[in-house]
């Protein structure tokens, strides 16, 4: 089939939403063409999720080696571990490369036609690329996103960078001093990496609560904030950052908080204030696809359809949680709607969120504050990891499980911070989505010793009884 042939489905963009839609549709027997201007895998694979987590793991290994003696592992006398930044980046690049090759091979085996080039929607809803026009019975827009920037913080890719640069750093050494602008998910993760690798790290956040000001329950986010501060991160909340000033040896960063006004010199500034949809030049207007004032493609969340019949949009280019796994789910909804299968829409209030810092943070559903604001009569219980046997064995006792439930009713929110929260939280995710009662989960058996016991013990306390708590 040539690129100019007709397809069942044409996909504009090869990131998580795009390739998930392509693979899912192809497995349903549809003919699919996917247009990608760079490499299949998108931001998540090449500049986001995967490389960032590889660097976080490098920091974890370095931190663990530094505490080896506490676990009965004797290091050579005088041995001091040191980060090998080039090696960490080679491994990061190797993981990304392997996943990219695997994804490319899978698309080929599923007979997805991958077209290289920058695609644009046409007036009739097709996709034009490189002189060809790809026509399908339906089109899915997966335009992705790019990092947001701030006036006065011009990105040069060397001294002032975004997460796209930080996850593709081929320099020979780490900066000695860094300022991270933004304390959200990305900023907190990079602050965790740099702090653990010995970089003097300053985290500047404009909102109250400098670490994860939006998202998880405050009790959970505060555990991470205290951990970062204890490990050496200088966290400044309600920080207004002024125009950056280049110096002979770095960058001068002026900032003010309600209690502090100062300038710090750093070697590098990481601007991590979120991402914006990359929809400026996709031909949306001529195709009759509405874009809102923030640049997001307007969709019907029940179907992922845009304002133009037969054209869907998923992923970072729509105003839903900017998570790869949400893009996967949205792509499935779009394909199933195209197939006439009546898909269940994504419940955006209950998706799983993970922050891969040390310690990890994960949640699903409402915070305690959100539940109370929504008018729920809530019952709230939490369980600290400090007394958990497995956490003590690992030497990872920072953390807690917090569950928010309707009084005498279902679980509304699950929040966790601690070792492997990213893996453990799915029990809470299921409970929130299945509207389980705490007693439903509390009567289930959790293996001993395990970190997951903290979840079971938190659920038991809703009965007015407890084991170790």
Write up this protein.
- The protein has 469 residues and is α/β, with parallel strands linked by helices.
- The protein has three domains: 6-147 and 276-348, FAD/NAD(P)-binding domain (3-Layer(bba) Sandwich), CATH 3.50.50.60; 160-273, FAD/NAD(P)-binding domain (3-Layer(bba) Sandwich); 359-463, 2-Layer Sandwich (Enolase-like, domain 1), CATH 3.30.390.
- The chain has 15 helices and 23 strands.
- It has helices at 16-27, 42-46, 49-66, 85-109, 163-166, 185-196, 218-231, 284-287, 324-338, 368-373, 389-394, 421-424, 426-433, 438-442, 453-460; strands at 6-12, 32-36, 113-116, 120-121, 127-129, 132-141, 145-147, 160-162, 177-181, 200-204, 234-236, 240-241, 245-246, 251-256, 261-266, 268-271, 275-277, 311-313, 353-355, 360-365, 378-384, 400-406, 411-418.
- Strands 1, 2, 3, 4, 5, 6 and 18 form a seven-stranded mixed β-sheet that branches.
- The longest helix is centred in the first third of the chain and has 25 residues, at 85-109.
- The protein is globular and about 65 Å long.
- One of its GO terms (molecular function) is flavin adenine dinucleotide binding.
- NAD(+) binds at residues 182-189, 205, 274.
- Belongs to the class-I pyridine nucleotide-disulfide oxidoreductase family.
- Residues 7-331 form the FAD/NAD(P)-binding domain.
- It catalyses: N(6)-[(R)-dihydrolipoyl]-L-lysyl-[protein] + NAD(+) = N(6)-[(R)-lipoyl]-L-lysyl-[protein] + NADH + H(+).
């Amino acid at each position: 089939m040539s690129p100019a042939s007709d397809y069942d489905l044409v996909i504009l963009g090869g990131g998580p939403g795009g390739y998930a839609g392509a693979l899912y549709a192809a497995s349903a027997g549809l003919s699919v063409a996917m247009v990608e201007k760079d490499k299949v895998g998108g931001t998540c694979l090449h500049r986001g999720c995967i490389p960032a987590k590889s660097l976080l793991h490098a920091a974890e290994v370095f931190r663990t080696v530094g505490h080896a003696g506490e676990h009965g592992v004797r290091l050579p006398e005088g041995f001091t571990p040191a980060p090998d930044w080039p090696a960490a980046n080679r491994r990061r690049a190797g993981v990304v490369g392997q996943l990219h090759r695997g994804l490319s091979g899978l698309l080929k085996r599923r007979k997805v036609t991958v077209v290289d080039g920058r695609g644009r929607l046409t007036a009739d809803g097709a996709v034009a690329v490189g002189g060809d026009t790809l026509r399908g019975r339906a089109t899915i827009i997966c335009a992705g996103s790019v990092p947001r920037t701030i006036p006065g913080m011009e990105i040069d890719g060397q001294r002032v960078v975004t997460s796209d640069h930080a996850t593709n750093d081929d320099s020979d050494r780490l900066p000695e001093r860094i300022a991270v602008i933004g304390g959200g998910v990305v900023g907190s993760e990079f602050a965790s990496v740099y702090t653990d690798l010995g970089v003097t790290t300053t985290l500047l956040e404009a909102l109250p609560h400098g670490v994860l000001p939006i998202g998880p329950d405050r009790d959970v986010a505060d555990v991470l904030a205290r951990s970062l501060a204890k490990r050496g991160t200088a966290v400044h909340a309600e920080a207004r950052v002024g125009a950056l000033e280049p110096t002979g040896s770095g960058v001068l960063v002026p900032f003010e908080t309600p209690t502090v006004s100062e300038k710090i010199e750093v070697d590098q500034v990481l601007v991590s204030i979120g991402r914006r949809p990359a929809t400026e030049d996709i031909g949306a207007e001529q195709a009759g696809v509405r874009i809102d004032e923030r640049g997001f493609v307007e969709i019907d969340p029940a179907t992922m359809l845009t304002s133009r019949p037969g054209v869907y949009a998923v992923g970072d280019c729509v105003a839903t949680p900017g998570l790869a796994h949400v893009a996967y789910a949205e792509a499935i909804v779009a394909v199933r709607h195209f197939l006439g299968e009546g898909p269940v829409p994504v419940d955006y209030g209950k998706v799983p969120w993970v922050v891969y810092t040390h310690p990890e943070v994960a949640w699903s559903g409402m915070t305690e504050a959100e539940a109370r604001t929504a008018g729920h009569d809530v019952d709230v219980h939490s369980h600290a990891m400090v007394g958990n046997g497995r956490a003590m064995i690992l030497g990872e006792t920072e953390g807690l499980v917090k569950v928010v439930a309707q009084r005498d009713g279902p679980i509304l929110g699950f929040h966790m911070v601690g070792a492997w929260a990213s893996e453990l939280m799915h029990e809470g995710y299921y409970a929130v989505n299945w509207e389980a009662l705490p007693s439903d989960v509390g009567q289930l058996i959790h293996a001993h010793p395990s970190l997951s016991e903290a979840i079971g013990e938190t659920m038991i306390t809703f009965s007015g009884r407890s084991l170790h708590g």
